[in-house]
Amino acid sequence: MKPSIPKGTRDFSPEQVYKRNYLFDAIKSVFIKYGYQPIETPVMENLSTLTGKYGEEGDRLLFKVLNNGDYLAEADTSALDARDSRRLTASISKRGLRYDLTVPFARFVVMHLNEIPMPFKRYQIQPVWRGDRPAKGRYQEFFQCDADVVGSESLVYEAELVQIYDEVFARLGLPVTIKVNNRKVLAAIAEVAGIPDQLTSMTVAIDKLDKIGQEGVRKEMAERGIPESAVAKIEQILEAKTLETLEVLLAGNASGEKGIAELRTLFAYLDPWASSGNSLEFDPTLARGLNYYTGCIFEVQGKAVQMGSLGGGGRYDNLTGVFGLPDVPGVGISFGAERIYDVMEEQGLFPSEASDQLKLLFAAFDEQTHQFAFRLLTEVRKAGICAEIYPDPVKLKKQLKYANDRSVPFVALIGDSEMQTGQIALKDMVQGTQESLTLDALIEKMKSQTR
């Protein structure tokens, strides 16, 4: 049977990995510039760590890992007989693949509290897994690139994270709009609409606005039991385009006033907005469906692409409390690396240096010159140049074909003359020209090459 891979996953060719590393390195360099430190957490977490943190839909999309050995030995037989998969899962699975990097980070903070300085700024670039329906830009296994700060309520960190988004996307040459809202504003909308106990249902529905449209959101809210009168009020408030308009619509509501004040502070830090092509805007329809957000929330949309969110995040002041450590505020953002990659590939935004790094191939004509070429290769590598030798002194045509297949820009041709004189015949595979150089001159030429 022909082998396959699970749906929603992908293999990556060398060329793709070079480009992905270019993307990751660009993001990581900005994280480091802003003072963030790296950590890593396990692929698997205890399900008790993960469940209940992402809302009803998030819990459903968690990948569960069966217990080791005979996982049915301690299975809930009544749940098994009743084919109640939700109840059965608790008895046959204690672990799950991480759904994001934020909840594992909160767990990390609680476990290592005495070892880290506060505020603690961390970045993390690792894969996560979600049992979502695969689609364009949506995979079941994908990398997240996160930056978070815990231990401070200062809105300077919200401003800093917006700047990180701006700088990364400017470096990548991908113009975006960075959208901002506040969960306190959303809570106020639910209160003013008379459904304070249905905030989660409202935000989960609103979060799908770009996928299912206004009519779809209206229908989903109705299906979730939100009264028609409340839906109408919610839609009226969400039409607000400015903080001033929103302030009038939410007048007298404490949550709304605090959320608006936080947004004003954020925009004050970022005033004037200095960017090379990126926009920053307030969007009252931005909801971010995850339950743990409590303050400012962010989402990044590409300006010239039809793709979902390229990044998102927000403040989550209560997250560590579920692990027994209350009163540790936090805020963070994530880059949707897979979608960003797809957009950059479609638009041809990856530079040529993001492709194969091999600069030089040695080609020999017989066994004796092959050994001599290998000694030259050793010296070239000592100089820090990415080079290799064709494994056998076969016909030159075959060796040059390999060089073309690898897109190697230069080939060093080693025959008897090169052994005797020390002058190496260097063929430029792009220009089709050839010259003779000493080893030292060849090394200097390779160091000066940008292609």
Sum up the overall morphology in one term: elongated
Which structural class matches the secondary elements? alpha+beta
Helix count, DSSP H or I runs of 4 or more residues: 18
CATH architecture of the largest domain: 2-Layer Sandwich
- Helical fraction equals 40-55%
Rg measurement, Å:
28 Å
- CATH-defined fold name of the largest domain: BirA Bifunctional Protein, domain 2
Side by side, the strands of the main sheet go 1-5-6-11-10-9-7-8
Q: What is the domain total for the residues?
A: 2
Classified by CATH, the class of the largest domain is Alpha Beta
How many β-strand runs? 16
Question: CATH homologous superfamily of the largest domain, by name?
Answer: Bira Bifunctional Protein, Domain 2
Average pLDDT reading = 91
Low-confidence stretches: none
User: How far from one another are the termini?
Assistant: 42 Å
User: How many strands, what sense, and barrel or not for the largest sheet?
Assistant: 8 strands, mixed
Bin the strand percentage. 15-25%
Summarize the helices and strands and which ones pair or pack.
Elements: H1 14-33, E1 37-38, E2 44-46, H2 47-50, H3 55-61, E3 64-65, H4 77-81, H5 85-92, E4 95-97, H6 102-111, E5 120-129, E6 141-150, H7 156-172, E7 176-182, H8 183-192, H9 199-206, H10 209-223, H11 228-238, H12 243-249, H13 254-269, E8 279-282, E9 296-302, E10 311-315, E11 330-336, H14 337-347, E12 360-364, H15 367-382, E13 387-389, H16 396-405, E14 410-414, H17 416-421, E15 424-428, E16 434-437, H18 439-448
Parallel strand pairs: 1-5, 7-8, 12-13, 12-14
Antiparallel strand pairs: 2-4, 3-4, 5-6, 6-11, 7-9, 9-10, 10-11, 14-15, 15-16
